Amino acid sequence: MLFGRFARQAIGSWKTLLSLRPRDVVHFCRVHRRSIGYWSLQTINFACFLHLFGEHVATLSYVEGPSMMPTMSMNGELTLELKRINPAELKRGDLVTYISPLDPTRRVCKRVTGLPGDVVCVDPTGQYAPSTEHVVIPRNHLWVTGDNLPYSRDSRMYGPVPFGLVKGKLYARVLPWRDRGVFRNTFEYID
Amino acid sequence: MKLLRGVRSAYASCRAFVQKRPAVKFTLSALVWLPLASAVIEYGVSVKTVRGRSMQPTLNPDDSLWKDIVLFDTFAIKFRHDYKRGDIVALKSPVDSKLIVKRIIALEGDTVKTLPPYPDAEVCVPPGHAWVEGDEPFRTEDSNRFGPVPLGLIESRLAYILWPWDRIGPLGKPLIPRHDAVVGSPDWRRSKAELEREKRRQSRVTIADSSSS
């Protein structure tokens, strides 16, 4: 608001913005030397606020790749991701995002299939391990798999994922707009 | 319209309330800068106190009266992804997600000779993982107990010791017996022991050629 007022004082109306010369910019900076520093710091501060909000509360994130094929299309989808989660309260069937144990610069999205203490079959498809092998998931770890088993690198390859790597949980799909909606838990329990 | 007027009057009364009280005004104007400060703490540098004995004698040695206050550098880890063997780092424990301070012994591809609680005698660190250990092998819960940890768990690197005044300074690679120390003095013995430990650590690790790039 205040910055807008300064700008209008300096350049008169928005039409003169089209014929802005470098000299005018220099003049504007010279006149408002003090407040420019202050307001750029305010802008940085606001950017920090937005970033921290996106890191700790909720953010829109883009998911792509073949590993979650029936749930997420390969071309990419925009989803609402919740960041304020407690990994201990996740349920089987939730979609989580975590830092890949293979590469710390990558974030991946998979489905939780085992909680601490569960016994899981390492690989029912027999791709990474014989299909008879079973493991107990240790404390403070999750077992995660992609929905598209042949094209997914997940716990079958690198084992259980520690809670410390879990960053968020996908809550709803935003784009494509006609498929919008909250992700439903697809797990059915058989007695 | 009525609602708008209500909001406006509420805003005006709040403003009047703040303007009348300098203490409240000062607090609010300081709070505005909170995001910037917390971003610096989260992505730049942060000051923390180290508890526990697992990093003795590098941190919290027995003859120290205070707990060590240290400066952690998050920028090097989160932006530059600069993981080096021998660095002391803070990481989230895979066992209970608490922040622990350990030393990186080996990175991906390296072969480490393990210490007792670990089932195998030798282990090759898988890609994207690191082998972390405390400096005090008897009082630490480290990779010898829970295996190699993913690099994503590592949060920050210890850059500087701030408090016990006699050990103030950056944590680089001193590790050479100090030339100004008198032979046989406590200082000399300490640096000699440090060098010895570093040698023992390095003798247990076979560094992979390809990961040096």
UniProtKB/TrEMBL annotation, chain A:
Positions of the Peptidase S26 domain: 43-123, 127-173
Subcellular localization: Mitochondrion inner membrane
GO cellular component terms, A-Z: mitochondrial inner membrane peptidase complex
Active site: S67, K110
CDD domains for the chain: S26_SPase_I
Keywords, sorted A to Z: Hydrolase, Membrane, Mitochondrion, Mitochondrion inner membrane
A single BP term in Gene Ontology: protein processing involved in protein targeting to mitochondrion
GO molecular function: serine-type endopeptidase activity
Listed InterPro entries: LexA/Signal_pep-like_sf, Mito_IMP1_subunit, Pept_S26A_signal_pept_1, Pept_S26A_signal_pept_1_Lys-AS, Peptidase_S26
Family designation: Belongs to the peptidase S26 family. IMP1 subfamily.
Protein name as catalogued: Peptidase S26 domain-containing protein
Source organism: Trametes cubensis
From TrEMBL, chain B:
Cell compartments where the protein resides: Mitochondrion inner membrane
Sample GO molecular function, one term: serine-type endopeptidase activity
Bias (Polar residues) ranges: 204-213
UniProt keyword annotations, A-Z: Hydrolase, Membrane, Mitochondrion, Mitochondrion inner membrane, Protease, Transmembrane, Transmembrane helix
Composition bias type Basic and acidic residues, residue spans: 189-199
GO cellular component: mitochondrial inner membrane peptidase complex
Domain of life per record: Eukaryota
Active site: S54, K102
Primary localization class, coarse: mitochondrion
Family: Belongs to the peptidase S26 family. IMP2 subfamily.
Peptidase S26 domain boundaries: 27-113
Origin species: Trametes cubensis
Lineage of the organism: Eukaryota, Fungi, Dikarya, Basidiomycota, Agaricomycotina
Region (Disordered): 189-213
InterPro entries: IMP2, LexA/Signal_pep-like_sf, Pept_S26A_signal_pept_1, Peptidase_S26
A single BP term in Gene Ontology: signal peptide processing
SUPFAM superfamilies in the cross-refs: LexA/Signal peptidase
Protein name: Mitochondrial inner membrane protease subunit 2
Pfam families: Peptidase_S26
Membrane topology: Single-pass membrane protein
Keyword Transmembrane helix on entry: yes
